[in-house]
DNA sequence: GACCTGCTGCGGTATG
């Protein structure tokens, strides 16, 4: 039987003429939430409708008077990680409501929402509110916030995979725990008993997150069981996620530990969208660079593809690389001026918005970008995606590939452009991983005390909280399930009394206790707290502005400090002359200079993911066994032959170490193929362990495939290797403590933690506290805590974070265990091998201050060692990197 | 103040 609501909605679908809808026959039931067919909804936001339309249908059924019904209160809260998404979804939802003559208001509440609108939202609530994790917490910091959520029926967390694994995710967990508890005690008899999660799956193209189904019959069954909201309904929680390695865990994290596991529902789709991946093979592989990361040598091939495509996105790994590529295209293909744009995180928002709109309007032929474009609004006209350099992870590549081919039945096409020879093998590994459906997991963050402190003060700012109640609530979250009561008490003590060490500083005594209620009474404290809600911290940057007004974006202070007035540089795709700097703003004017420095930014480091590393090692094993089924492997044959000839091609049960003597000293090269971060830790660890046998001082260099230890001493490597402890995980932590400056690493981590935990105030908007002061104060706090409060939870967190994220301790451990079981193949080599060369180039770059360009030096090195591959003319590096390498073990 | 190739993301001041 079709209910009136379903009928209305069906009618709507028919009017919209969604012929292409892949699940058309399933449309007969309107309760189709979760089906990916909506992918092809004209608005491009299928999942929105998958969840929203059934919800509307139910509302209509429950309220025959829905057209006149007023004051429904907040029905649905939709949380997304991106402000930009809220606007898209709002428009789409509002359109449906208007069409169906449902007098619902759909609103957004983010940092972009004008103050007047925010005030209006407080007075009269919309039926649907779209917001961000940060804004949700700002709402929780409002007086009488429970009123807002009184009538809430459904909570949707969109793009959950983006939040999971971050402190923003923890923020969402905490926010949800509060809303769940509100429901449980509220007058409307909320309970979370029937909450559901639809963890959707990215289609094979990975374009958008689809709520969809793996096994159609099964999901139909599940659909039948769904209970939609009723008048005295229970709060429902939905999560929407791309495919990640740990979807089940993702659901558990979202719903919390108090959620009955048998009530969790997974809905996935099996839309098989074709994805074609093609590696660009350099024409003459023997002349292709062995090292480098810009990849401009393949510009001609890339531009051929661009010319053949309608609209192309060129993804690069760094902002600087985007600028370099944009510049190179403009230089060599001037006809693209006007139909090409650039998009990355340091460009002014206005410019970025313009690019996004121009993409929609099909006014652009090609956009060079970073991951700033791999999430968010759909860019329908894009038919081709080109990835320059290794994407470092399977999921990231899928996400980007999915930006192309957004039509029913369309094939998504993605090209992979290697920036050096061996990277081509990553192309083969990527294809293999995608074929096997191997995706990275997002590991949820646990016990992030800084986020918890912030949350506790947030609640104290609004209506206050009671210690026991809040504790019981907090431990229902996945993140704090293991929070011990005495730890919680420490935090309470910290926000009320400043803990053990800060008691005499008023600044840290934020919260007062009155009749058991923890509350903030100071307006100043409350205001400052609201100003600093959120978990994203960033470095101070310098705004770049035209003399005539108008902003271009931001660069780093260190870059600007290298410029003198009159110097020219390239930024935002333009040639600029630096005029002066005033109040954190660099003023520039137009320049006609053809050449100039290109800024670079210090961002996060992205090591090769452990999943992709594993597949890469598999590929290498195939190579060692002479299996040649991938075109990449076939193309790389000369390189591998040379490697075999000069040294060895390790099989999966072998671990290769190369030993090599040069004027510089004794080089030892190790190849775990585990990503940079692990290599960095392992290099320090092994250097330390060697130095126990024979004291020596090492310099370290590394890339994603291996690392080098260089020393003046003649290291008795055979003897060292005989030592059973060399690759052992025994005493790992102690040895790491000895070999790395763990204190410094933790101190750096602590800066962000202090910021998030509200220990340092970053200043009022527009008049930020100088970076130096922040550093000094967080560093001081770190020292004070370390000295007087050894059990301080925030300091402990800093060490844990350094270990987990900077050292990837877990991976390091696994890698050592693997190596311990492998046969060690020690090869004394005459000259650098194809494996060794790129690592040694890596060390070249930062070895010493020099006026020689890196390019020249690589060429020189190639000549010197007679290596066949020569790094191309691509290293137009601006930054003269010239700091001594790590010394001192 | 360290990173040396290195991404993304969010907030926001107050009165009659």
> Major β-sheet, in short?
6 strands, parallel
At the first level of CATH, the class of the largest domain is: Alpha Beta
Indicate the CATH architecture of the largest domain: 3-Layer(aba) Sandwich
State mean pLDDT (0 to 100 scale): 82
Write the CATH fold name of the largest domain.
Rossmann fold
Uncertain segments of ≥5 residues (pLDDT<50)?
Answer: 19-45, 185-233, 845-852, 867-889
The dominant shape is globular
The CATH superfamily of the largest domain is identified as P-loop containing nucleotide triphosphate hydrolases
Output the structural class.
alpha/beta
The end-to-end distance, rounded to whole angstroms, is 77 Å
Alpha carbon gyration radius:
29 Å
* Fraction of residues in helix: 25-40%
In the sheet with the most strands, the strands line up as 8-13-12-9-11-10
Domain unit count: 4
How many distinct beta strands? 28
* Annotation field: number of helices: 31
GO molecular function, one term: DNA binding
Domain Helicase C-terminal: 298-453
Keywords: ATP-binding, DNA damage, DNA repair, DNA-binding, Helicase, Hydrolase, Isomerase, Ligase, Nucleotide-binding
Protein name: Ligase-associated DNA damage response DEXH box helicase
